[in-house]
């Protein structure tokens, strides 16, 4: 492929519906979805993508039943602990962003451990957004800047105070399950992102379909407010 996006974001949607369609508890959809995440991380690395951001848990997801939230946190913890060898083998750096200070201590410690152990990995960065909201990130960036004495808020002021300032703007945003909205995901970074939607539920999403999205991106012309080139 001639044109590969530098930064791809994925809203991994449809785990609960996938399970319900099969008469299974919603948590089983999350379990299968976690396995799909592994395959997509590997596929992104093979395609040459440098940053892959995955919407793992939003600030709005606290509204879900308490048992489901607890299961999701335990699943994330098991995921990061068990997939460390994979990240090291694939030379993928693991990062997390969001209001992490509100998460359970065991989960924060698990994230910190794998971040430290993969800090030297250079081929790709896999960014898991946990307890994350785009509006909340912008608010937190502004408040951080004001606390540090900023007299005027500019684009650069906000950018350098985001959770992960070095994270580039999003080139392509993929959402599964047929929903056609961005749900408060990476709002600042999505100002000019290309959008790609599929009806496929996340547990059925494959590396092949992921590659189709990347190929479609390669056929688009991004003008950033300019005019079409001749």
TrEMBL record:
Keyword Cell membrane assigned: no
Coiled coil (UniProt feature): none
Binding residue positions for substrate: 14-18, 26, 30, 58-60, 62, 64, 175, 181-183
Stored Pfam families: Prenyltransf
Active site: 13, 61 (proton acceptor)
GO annotation, biological process: polyprenol biosynthetic process
One function term, GO molecular function aspect: magnesium ion binding
Key words of the record: Magnesium, Metal-binding, Transferase
InterPro entries: UPP_synth-like (IPR001441), UPP_synth-like_CS (IPR018520), UPP_synth-like_sf (IPR036424)
Free-text cofactor note: Binds 2 magnesium ions per subunit.
The EC number(s) this enzyme carries: 2.5.1.-
Keyword Chaperone: no
Domain of life, per lineage: Bacteria
Necessary cofactors: Mg(2+)
Binding positions for Mg(2+) per the UniProt entry: 13, 194
Gene3D superfamilies according to UniProt: Decaprenyl diphosphate synthase-like (3.40.1180.10)
HAMAP family membership: ISPT
Main function: Catalyzes the condensation of isopentenyl diphosphate (IPP) with allylic pyrophosphates generating different type of terpenoids.
Family from the record: Belongs to the UPP synthase family.
Subunit structure: Homodimer.
Protein name: Isoprenyl transferase
Species the sequence originates in: Desulfurobacterium indicum
């Amino acid at each position: 492929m001639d044109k590969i996006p530098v930064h791809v974001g994925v809203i991994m949607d449809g785990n609960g519906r996938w399970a319900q369609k099969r008469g299974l508890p919603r948590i089983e959809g999350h379990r299968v979805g976690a396995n799909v995440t592994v395959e997509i991380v590997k596929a992104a690395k093979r395609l040459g993508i440098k940053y892959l951001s995955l919407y793992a848990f939003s600030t709005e997801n606290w509204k879900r039943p308490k048992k489901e939230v607890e299961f999701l946190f335990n699943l994330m913890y098991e995921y990061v602990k068990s997939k460390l060898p994979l990240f090291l083998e694939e030379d993928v750096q693991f990062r997390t962003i969001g209001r992490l200070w509100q998460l359970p201590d065991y989960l924060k410690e698990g994230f910190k451990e794998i971040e430290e152990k993969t800090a030297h990995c250079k081929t790709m960065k896999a960014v898991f957004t946990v307890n994350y909201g785009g509006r909340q990130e912008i608010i937190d960036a502004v408040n951080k800047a004001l606390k540090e004495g900023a007299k005027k808020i500019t684009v650069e002021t906000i950018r350098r105070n985001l959770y992960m300032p070095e994270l580039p703007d999003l080139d392509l945003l993929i959402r599964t399950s047929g929903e056609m909205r961005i749900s408060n995901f990476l709002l600042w970074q999505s100002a000019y992102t290309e959008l790609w939607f599929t009806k496929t539920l996340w547990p059925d999403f494959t590396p092949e379909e992921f590659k189709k999205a990347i190929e479609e991106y390669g056929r688009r012309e991004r003008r950033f407010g300019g005019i079409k080139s001749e």
